[in-house]
């Protein structure tokens, strides 16, 4: 049975909803899934999983400080273990999925893409294949103006149940391709 790890950091619940939807979709495909917040995952070893999914919100074109610190700590551990090699040779059977929630009160998706790309680099350097980056438009919780006046229009209530169901289905499809 394939094994997956879904790691996430969520302040308002949006990223947590997406992480749970990914977990449900992977499990529907028969994958054994571990779901953890990055703040509770110091002991994880990415190499124990076939797929590692990492999610965070976009905050000023970056993942939150807590996620960056977590990724850097794991990167340093793998560097000490000499798992980071020149040329970043691919490790067969090791995959990663990045997912990022964003609200877009300013420019939208363009603010989120740097987060997915940044997080993915940590996995590419240890030889994982980044299979995809998912960007999920989400409500700017606690600020009606930023949830209604941005370029994305009225994003209150996002991600919706229908959007979360699509994420579940996409995760199930992803599992079948691994």
The CATH class assignment is Alpha Beta
What topology, given as strand order, has the largest sheet?
A: 2-1-3-4-5
Q: Work out the helix count.
A: 5
The shape, in one word, is globular
State the low-pLDDT regions, or none.
Answer: none
Helix coverage percent: 25-40%
Rg over C-alpha atoms, rounded to the nearest angstrom = 16 Å
> In the CATH scheme, what's the topology name?
Rossmann fold
Strand content: 15-25%
Instruction: Briefly note the structural class of the backbone.
Output: alpha/beta
**How far is the first residue's CA from the last residue's CA?**
11 Å
CATH architecture: 3-Layer(aba) Sandwich
Mean pLDDT: 95
- Fourth-level CATH superfamily: Flavodoxin domain
Total strands: 5
The profile of the biggest β sheet is: 5 strands, parallel
Task: Please describe the structure with a list of short key phrases separated by commas or semicolons.
single chain; 178 residues; alpha/beta; 5-stranded parallel β-sheet; 5 helices; globular
């Amino acid at each position: 049975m394939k094994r997956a790890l879904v790691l996430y950091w969520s302040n308002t619940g949006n990223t947590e909803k997406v992480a749970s939807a990914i977990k449900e979709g992977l499990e529907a495909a028969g994958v054994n899934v571990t779901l953890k917040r990055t703040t509770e995952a110091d002991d994880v070893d990415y190499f124990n999983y076939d797929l590692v999914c990492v999610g965070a919100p976009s905050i000023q074109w970056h993942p939150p400080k807590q996620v960056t610190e977590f990724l850097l700590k794991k990167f340093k551990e793998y560097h000490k273990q000499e798992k980071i090699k020149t040329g970043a040779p691919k490790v067969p059977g090791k995959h990663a999925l990045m997912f990022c929630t964003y609200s877009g009160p300013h420019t939208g998706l363009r603010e989120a893409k740097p987060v997915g790309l940044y997080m993915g680099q940590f996995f590419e350097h240890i030889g994982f294949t980044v299979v995809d980056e998912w960007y999920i438009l989400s409500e700017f919780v606690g600020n009606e103006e930023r949830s209604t006046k941005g370029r994305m229009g009225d994003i209150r209530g996002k991600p919706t149940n229908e959007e979360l169901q699509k994420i579940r289905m996409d995760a199930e499809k992803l599992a079948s391709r691994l």
